[in-house]
Each structure stands twice: as C-alpha cells, then as structure tokens.
Amino acid sequence: MEADNKSQKSPEESATTPPLPASNELEDAMAKNAKLLQERNDFEDKYKRALAEAENVRKRMLRLVEDAKLFGIQSFCKDLLEVADVLEKATESAPEDQLKEGVNPHFRHLFEGLKMTDAQLLKVFSKHSLHKIVPAIGDTFNPNIHEAVFTIPVSGENKPNTIAVIQKVGYSLHDRTLRPAYVGVFTA
Hints:
Layout lengths: L1 H6 L3 H6 L6 H49 L2 H19 L12 H23 L2 E4 L12 E8 L9 E6 L1 E4 L2 E4 L1 E7 L1
Parallel strand pairs: 2-6
Antiparallel strand pairs: 1-4, 3-6, 4-5
Helix pairs in contact: 4-5
C-alpha cells in the first residue's frame, strides 16, 4: 500500500505541478516560439525600414518643393534674358555724337528711356536673384559658368585656357547657371 501511496500524489501536489508535456509537444512549442520571434523581428525590421523610407521621401519632397520655389521662374527668366540682351545692345549701339546735348533731343530722350528700362529690368532680375555673369578678358575659363564658342591660338602675353573674347554675358539664378557667358578662349 505504501508503494501505491508513493505513486499517487496528494491532491495538493497534483494541483501545483502541471503535467509535463510530451517531448514532441515541447519541441513543437519551442519551434513555434522561435518562428514567431523570427516573424516579429522581421516585421520590426520592415517597420523600421518603412519609417526610414517615409522620412527619406518627406525630405526629398521638401527639397523638391524648395527647388520649385527657387527655380519655378527659371524658364520665364530664361525668356527674359533675350529682352535684356536686346536692350543692352540697343543702348550700346547708340551713336555717341547723337547723344550730346542739343544735337538730337528726341533720340537722346529715347536713349535715356532705354537706359532706364534696362536699369529697371536689371533691378527686377536682382530682386529675384537673377544675376549677370560678366567675365573679364584674361580670366581663367570655367566650364561651369562659361561656354567656349571658339578658340584662339595663344599669342604674346596671353595664357592658355583664359578668356580672349566675350560674346555674350551669362546669367545665374540662385547661384545656378541659367545661361553661361559665351566666350572665346585662348588655347596652346
């Protein structure tokens, strides 16, 4: 009877100790737990990557909006450059002898009106960060702001890769070259 008592547990012992699952059930539960942990880690990784991607998209959109604000007028400005060039050429080509006091007052008034229009246009350009790129003869050629339309062999004291002739001034919009200055360059 004593052997029977040992094999049988008291009601207190059987209530506190759960029955041990079979070895296969334990292995299955551990495998399922490992699989669930791996899935959780995968989802956490995907979540973090999605957050990072969303932040990158947000920054990219902010940059695009900022560029659109700065450079949205770029094509309009480019079209106005030809107007500025024509005004400048008109004022440069006026004969000096006709501009003297009393010689031709109508021509002189027309010339002064052109100069005022040109000055006002340049003021508007400056207000919107559109600035002239005016190279000087002898400056080093910079392909970012100059466009070489022809080359001239070096002669005398001139140095290669320097500006020989300025055909047309360039313009930049917010430090971005809108139109390069058209120049002739000395070459060796």
